[in-house]
């Protein structure tokens, strides 16, 4: 059977950078209006930790705030992200459709695994009709763990997958692949960091290169 391919979402399939700053600005303006924040929006801090679980994100961005305020900020932020997705302000990376079609034609089962929230992921899948190719989209919320390695293991068990590749832009994706004995393909896109990509088995700058890597190295 052809190998499965498991994709990260943010910074891999979806150009999150197109809606990240505006959504975060709106969120911190909201917090400022409630006197729960002062200062600039911590956009660069967020970029550095893109791919982390949401609990880590908000603990990093708002270390001195209560869990209730962090949850409120996260909910507001996701409402803005989803509104911006449905408003057409985001985009997939170039050649996503062509890559997915090539993999589908080769018989590869396709999945998405993300540390993002289910509603957010579904908004992207729905907006860009990714379920034409993707069998199932998985959120870290679906398991009792905040480790992406465990989420990938869950997918492998559910679908009885033997061979697979994980495609992503951050170390969490690479470690999740390696932790399950899978091929790790790094994407040199917006949020990628060279020291993290160095740990991947292969690195692409164009998603059209993924099918050949998957078929040649799994």
The class by helix and strand makeup works out as alpha/beta
Determine and state the CATH class of the largest domain: Alpha Beta
The average pLDDT score comes to 96
User: Tally the helices: what do you get?
Assistant: 10
**Rounded to an integer, what's the Rg over CA atoms?**
17 Å
Low-pLDDT runs: none
Name the CATH architecture of the largest domain: 3-Layer(aba) Sandwich
In CATH, the topology of the largest domain is named Rossmann fold
The arrangement of helices and strands along the chain is EHHHHHEHEHEHEHEH
Going by CATH, the homologous superfamily of the largest domain would be: HAD superfamily/HAD-like
Strand arrangement, largest sheet? 3-2-1-4-5-6
Work out the helicity level.
40-55%
Total of domains: 2
Measure the end-to-end span.
Answer: 11 Å
Keywords: Hydrolase
Protein name: HAD hydrolase-like protein
Pfam family, one: Hydrolase
GO molecular function, one term: phosphoglycolate phosphatase activity
